[in-house]
Structures are given as C-alpha cells and as structure tokens.
Amino acid sequence: MKGKNFETEKRKVMKYRWVIYILLSTVYFLANFHKFSTGVMQDELIDSFDLSTAAFGNLSSMVFYSYLIMQIPSGLLADTLGARMTVTAGCIVTAIGSFLFAAAQGAAIANISRFVIGIGISVTYISLIKIQTKWFLSREFATMTGLTFLLGNLGSVLAQTPLRMLADMFSWRSIYFVFGAMSVFMGILTFIIVRNSPEDMGLPSIESIEGKTVVINPNKEKIEIRSAVGKILINRYNWPTFAVVFSLGAILSILSGSFGSVYIRDTYGVSMVDASRYTMILTLALAIGSTILGLLSDRFRKRKIFMLILNGTMTAVWVYIVVISKGEPAFDKLKMLYMLTGLSLSSCLLSYTVAKESNDLTYAGLSVSFVGLMEFIGSAVGPVAVGKIIDMNPSLVGGELYSRAFIVLAVLSAVTFAGTMFVKETNGENITVADSIVPL
Q1: What is the DSSP string of 347-372?
Q2: How far is CA 28 from CA 68, 108, 187, in A?
Q3: Is 56:45 a contact under the CB 8 Å cutoff?
Q4: Quick check: helix, strand or coil at residue 399?
C-alpha cells in the first residue's frame, strides 16, 4: 500500500525531472549548434584556412568523426558513470575545443579543435536518453525523444540564418569564444543540479511509480560490456534501423551542416543570408516535426508506419530535385521541398525509439549508442562524398553541378525507405524478454 509520503515523493520526482531535462536539453541545444555551425560560414573558413571544397567538407565532418568514435564509449559512460559526470566532463572538453578553434591559425589546428569539440558534445544526447529512461515514464519515451529533437534542433536553427547574421556583425572567432564560455557555464550547472536517477535524491524510482519493481540478478550486478555488445550486434532487429539512421545522418549533415545553403546560393544567385533561410526552414521543420511525430507515435503506439511515410516522402523529394528537375527545381518550390525534407528527417527520432524498444533495457544507453554511431558515420561520410564530387567537376556550375553531387542524397533517401521496410514494429513496447522488470 502506497501512502501519503510516497505521493509526496512522487510529486517531487515529477517536478525535479523537468529541471534536469531542461538543463541537459540546453546543453544539447549548444551541441547541435556546434555540429552544424560551419555550413553558413563556409566562405570565411575557406579563406581563413585556405581550404578546398573537399577540405572544407572534411573540416565540417571532424565533429562527426569524433562523434563516431565516441558513440560506444558515450553509451558506456552513460550506463556506468551516469549522465551527471559524463555531461559535465563533455561540456569542459567542448569549451576547450571551442577556444582552440577560435584561436586556430592553420588548417591542422582547426581540424584538431573541431575533433575535440566533437568529443565533448558526443556524450550529451546519449546521456539525455539515459535520463529519460530513469526520470520519465516508459509510455512517454517517444514523446520526450521528440521534444528532445525539437530543443536540440533549435540549436541547428541557430546555426543557420541567425549565425549568418552574427557572422556578418562579428568575427567567427569571437562567436566560437562566446560559445566556449557558455559550455563552461553549462558544465558547472550540470554538476550542481543533475542527478542520475530519483534514487540518488532518496526518491522513488520511476519503475515503482509505474507500478513495477527492479529485480537484481545477483550473478550480474553490473553490465558485462562484451556480452552486451555481442547481443546488440546479433540482434537482427537492429540492422535495418542502423541502415536507416546512417542515411538520415548523412542527409542532415550534407544539407544542414555543409552544402544546403551553398547549393541555393550558387544555383539561384541569392545572398548567403537568404540562402541560409532555406536550411533554417529545414531545421525548423525537423524540430517541429519531431515533436509532433513523438506525440503521434506514442498516441497510436506505432513506429514503423510513420517511418515509412516520412522516408518515402523524402525519397520522392530528392528524386524530384536531382533526377526530374536536374538539380534546379523552380525557385518558388524550394521552401516546400526543404520543409518536406526537414519533416521527413524527423523519422530519425523513431530510429532511437525502436532501438530502445528492441534491446534489453539493462544496456539502454549502449544500444542507443550504436544507433548514434551509425548516424554519425553517415554524418561524417556524407559531406566528404559530396565535396569530392564537386571538386571532381570544376567546369560545372549551378544545377548541372548539384544534379551530380546530390545524387548522393537521392540514393541515401532511397536507402532510408528500403531499410524501413525491414524495421520491426514494436507497438510502443520493449520486445525483448526483460528479466529485470516484473510487475508488482
């Protein structure tokens, strides 16, 4: 029988979880700014470091290279050290990378500093997912993941037109110095405020609030890393999700982080500020679409059908742009095409949700890390591939050039749709045999 004291403590959990969530979402907001901040400052960075287009693509991807390397360690850190210490350390590393990038005088240091920034920001999303599993009800997971995408992608929005306007007023070096200082501040707040679970504050666990209890297996008191990794890799439900999220990560990185604005500027002859408004539309659509998708997915307890609709839409959009319109669709259609792309990219959040629901909750952070790993492999490879194609065709311009370079986007979009056809529908429940959670 649960008395008044339990109800009082339950209310504390339900209130304090939002304090933690808002703080870590702000850190994630800054992480997304860093990921995509180079796209609208292409000219300044190319001039500052004497880069080719492919080298600029590589500079943009340095964050994703380190993100890639850190995905599995990030999951292990979230599952062992917990979100509090992991994100605190990540903020400090991000600040060091930001200060180093602001002071860089050559391409080598610029690449290294972007790599360091990637290490720092790589731990944020997985830690936030871990917080969601510890502080929020299981039926809220897709909704909260959608909200996380919304708040995080507002950082991507900041890295579009607002950043371009800031770069016109201040030097890009000053901007990075300020964001480095903000990372230090957020690291201090994280250490002071965040707690890994309600139990760390002497409050009831989220399982007990849901009417469940945790049964500890005495022979497995801690995560067996090799066993957990092996189970994730042999789980046949994971690989279609990996293929989908790889392609979605590549598409977002190409458009939002590297070439989305430059393509419009070079093809239609508009200013960089005006061109960046289209990538801002894309990221806003992604942010808003993620929130709505999370709510709908939890409401109907379905994942796959929404992914099929969205990824099919994106495939149609990029086949139309690249194949039918030869890289140069009518200018008045661009807003709609970019908006549809952003909405379609929101299916990425369901990849994380499906991964969480297709693997043992004991290693939730690690399973989500594998999805993140695949996303950021795509994010790292995508811009470099497009940059290589552009450098290989120096005589081409405008739509003719991008009809070749963006064939990458059409192929990746088709992969998202084909991969989704093999994704397992979870119906909003964990589909593994979970011995660690039993009804009271």
Answers
A1: THHHHHHHHHHHS-GGGHHHHHHHHH
A2: 17, 27, 12
A3: yes
A4: helix
Closest CA to 41 of 181, 180, 173: 173
Residue 186 Rama label (left phi>0; alpha psi -120 to 50; beta): alpha
Going by pLDDT thresholds of 50, 70 and 90, the confidence category of residue 27 is very high
Question: ∠ at Cα 121 (117, 123), nearest 5°?
Answer: 135
Measuring CA to CA, how many Å separate 437 from each of 1, 212, 343? 20, 7, 35
**187-221: b or e for each residue (b if 16 or more CB lie within 10 Å)?**
bebbeeebbbbbeeeebbbbbbbeebeeeeeeeee
Q: Under DSSP, is residue 438 helix (H, G, I), strand (E, B) or coil? A: strand
- Which residue has 């659509």 as its token pair? 285
* CA 142 vs CA 7, 145, 238, 422: distances in Å: 25, 5, 18, 20
Average pLDDT, integer, range 169-176: 91
* Residue-range domain boundaries for the chain: 4-439
Q: What gap in Å lies between CA 182 and CA 195, rounded to an integer?
A: 21
Instruction: Report d(CA 365, CA 78) in Å as an integer.
Output: 6
pLDDT at 220: 43
In this predicted structure, the answer to whether residue 57 has a pLDDT above a threshold of 50 is yes
- 381-418 per-position pLDDT tens digit: 898 899 899 989 988 988 899 999 999 999 999 999 99
Cα 238 from chain centre: 18
Q: Which homologous superfamily does the CATH classification assign to the domain defined by 4-439?
A: MFS general substrate transporter like domains (1.20.1250.20)
Pair of tokens at residue 11: 């209310």
